[in-house]
From TrEMBL, chains A, B:
This is Isopentenyl phosphate kinase. It catalyses: isopentenyl phosphate + ATP = isopentenyl diphosphate + ADP. ATP binds at G107, D233, G284, K288. One of its GO terms (biological process) is terpenoid biosynthetic process. One of its GO terms (molecular function) is ATP binding. The keyword Nucleotide-binding applies. Pfam families: AA_kinase. It comes from the Eukaryota. Coiled coil: none annotated. Its EC number is 2.7.4.26.
Length: 336, 336
C-alpha cells in the first residue's frame, strides 16, 4: 500500500511530462491594425478553451464556478476585487491538469518599437537601439501581463516568465543560453508558465529579437510535450495566402527524418510542396512549416488551427487525428 | 595607444562596479490607503532625481531633452506615441552613468493578495495559497511594469526583472538560489535592472514572499555598490513612530563588526539604542536598521531619506557625508 501510494505521488525531483505547449499567435489575440490593442474576445475565448482542455472531465459535467486568480483592479474599475477566501480555501483542488506551457507572439505589441529602432539587428552602442530595446520590452511585457491576467481570470494558475529576465540569450541570433529549470520548477509546483517573444542580449550582436516560435521549438526539444498547438487567425496552413479565393487548406503534412516535408492531404497537392513557398507572399507560412517540422521530427504532433473555434478546442485537448475528417486545421507530424 | 584604448574599454567579462542600489519604498511610490494606486507625482520625481544622479555633469549645465524610452500607449491615450528615430539615432550616447540597480517595494500592490491568501506561509496544496500566489505576482509585476515605464519615460534604460522569473527561490524563507548573472549582464549592456519583492518558490514551504530589502542585502553582498539609498515617505529612521511629535530623527548610526549598532547622532540618544525597538510600534524601523546594518558592515554606506526632496537628490548622487549638517536623513555606516 505504501509503495502504491508512493508511486501515485510524483517524485519531487522527476518532472511530470508536459502535456501541451500552446502558441497564442499574435494575429489571434491582438488587433493587428491597431497599435497595442488586444482582441479581448478572442483572448478570453482562447483562455476559456484552454481551461476546458485542462479540465479532467470531458466537459460533460456542469462546469464549476471559475476560481478567478486575478485579484487586481482593472483599469477604470473603481471597485476593489471581491475575493471569497473562505470558499477558495475550502476547495479540494483545481481539478485541472495544469501541465501546459503557454507562449505568445507579439501581434500589434512590440513590432512598432522593434522595427523603428532595429533591435533585431543589434548594436547597443546606438542610442536608438538601446532605447528601442527598452521600449520593445515594455510593450511585449505589457501584453504578457494582460495574457497572464486573462488566463488567471479563467482560473488558470498562470505565471509570467520573460525570456530576457530568465537569462535567455542568443549568439548571432541563435539560442545560446536558455535554462529552463525555472520553467520546470514552476510546472512542478502546478503553475502554467507564460512566455513570449522578447528582446534579448546577443553575444555577438549585443541584442536581437527572440521569437515565440523559436522558444516553442526549444521547449519542445527539452520537455517533449505530447503535442503542440499553434492558435492563429486562419484555419491553418494554406498553399497560398488565405485571402486568395483559390487557397487550399493543407490538412496534413508529413515530415521525414531528414527534415523534408510533403503534403499528404489533400491528395491533389501531393508532391507539390514547393508550391507553398512560391505562393506564400506573406512570408510567414514557409517559416511556420519549417519551425513545426523541427518539432514534428521529434515525434510530437503539431496542430495549427484557428483560435476560438471548435477546432481549436479539439486541438487543445489533443483530440485530433489524421482520420478526423471534420477537424479543420493542419496536422504536421513525423512520417514514422 | 592600443593598450590605452583597451584599458578604457571595459573588458566584456569584468563587471563594472555598481555605483548605487536604490530602494524605491512602497510607501513612497504608492498611495498606501488605496488598493493598487501609484503616487504618480512621487514616482515621477524619484525617476527624475535618479536620472539627474546618473548624469555625468553635476547638473549645472542645461539638461538635454529627455530621450523617452517608453514608446507604448498609455491607458486612455488615443494617440500613438511619437518617436523621432532620426534624432535619437543621431545622439552620441546617453551621457549617463547607468550603473544603478533599482529595487522597489510593493506598497499598496501585492499586500492585499498576499495577506488574503497567506502566500508567505507556503503550502501550495491549498487552493487559496495557489490562487493567492498567482494574484500576488500579477499585482506586484503590474507595479514593476509601471515603474519600468516611469523610469523609461525619464530616459533611463530600465529593464524589469522579476525575481521569480529569474529563478530566485528560498528555503525556509531564507534566500537559497539567487543567480545574479543576468543582472550583471544587463548592467554590463548598459541597462538598469528593476527588481521587486515577489512571490517565490520555497524548497520547504512550497512558496513564500521574498522582500525587496532581502534582495538589496543580497545584491549588496554580491556586487559591492558604492552606496545604497532607501527612499521612503519620512525623513529617515526615528527613535519612535514619526507621527509622534516627540520623535527624533536618528542622523547617524554606526555598525560594529559584530553587527551591533549604536546611535552616533544626535548625541543625546547615544547609548540608548534599545529605545528604538521599544518605541517602534509599527515594527518596521528595527527591521530596516537591521537590514541596513548588514549592508553597512560590508563598508557600504546606507542612506535612508525622504523621496522627492533635496535630501533624496543628494543621497542618490552619493553627495552625503557624516559632516553634512544640512542633509536630512539617516546614515548607517560601518564603525571602521
Amino acid at each position: 500500500m505504501a509503495e502504491e501510494a508512493a508511486q501515485e505521488q510524483p517524485s519531487p525531483t522527476a518532472p511530470r511530462p508536459v502535456r501541451c505547449i500552446v502558441k497564442l499567435g499574435g494575429a489571434a489575440i491582438t488587433n493587428k491594425g491597431e497599435l497595442e490593442s488586444i482582441n479581448e474576445e478572442s483572448l478570453r475565448s482562447a483562455c476559456a478553451q484552454l481551461r476546458q482542455a485542462m479540465s479532467e472531465s470531458d466537459g460533460d459535467g456542469a462546469p464549476g464556478k471559475v476560481l478567478g486568480m486575478d485579484w487586481s483592479r482593472r483599469h477604470g474599475d473603481p471597485a476593489d476585487p471581491a475575493v471569497d477566501a473562505e470558499r477558495i480555501a475550502g476547495m479540494a483542488g483545481l481539478g485541472f491538469d495544469t501541465n501546459f506551457i503557454v507562449v505568445h507572439g507579439a501581434g500589434s505589441f512590440g513590432h512598432f518599437q522593434a522595427s523603428r529602432s532595429g533591435v533585431h539587428k543589434g548594436g547597443l552602442h546606438s542610442t536608438l537601439v538601446k532605447a528601442g530595446f527598452v521600449a520593445t520590452r515594455i510593450s511585449v511585457t505589457s501584453l504578457n501581463q494582460e495574457i497572464v491576467r486573462a488566463l488567471a481570470r479563467e482560473g488558470i494558475p498562470s505565471v509570467g516568465m520573460s525570456p530576457f529576465a530568465c537569462g535567455w540569450s542568443t549568439k548571432q541570433r541563435k539560442l545560446a543560453s536558455a535554462d529552463a529549470s525555472q520553467i520546470i520548477q514552476s510546472l512542478h509546483a502546478g503553475f502554467v508558465p507564460v512566455l513570449h517573444g522578447d528582446a534579448v542580449l546577443d553575444e555577438l550582436l549585443d541584442c536581437t529579437i527572440l521569437s515565440g516560435d523559436v522558444i516553442i521549438r526549444h521547449l519542445s526539444q527539452l520537455l517533449s510535450p505530447k503535442y503542440v498547438v499553434f492558435l492563429t487567425d486562419v484555419h491553418g496552413v494554406y498553399d497560398r495566402p488565405p485571402t486568395d479565393p483559390n487557397a487550399v487548406l493543407l490538412r496534413e503534412i508529413e515530415v521525414d527524418d531528414n527534415g523534408s516535408w510533403s503534403i499528404v492531404k489533400p491528395a491533389l497537392l501531393q508532391g507539390n510542396n514547393k508550391g507553398v513557398a512560391a505562393h506564400d507572399t506573406t512570408g510567414g507560412m514557409e517559416t511556420k512549416i519549417l519551425e513545426a517540422a523541427v518539432i514534428a521530427r521529434l515525434g510530437i504532433d503539431v496542430y495549427i488551427t484557428k483560435a476560438g473555434t471548435e477546432h481549436s478546442q479539439r486541438a487543445l485537448k489533443g483530440d485530433v487525428s489524421t482520420d478526423s475528417e471534420d477537424w479543420l486545421g493542419t496536422i504536421i507530424r513525423s512520417s514514422k
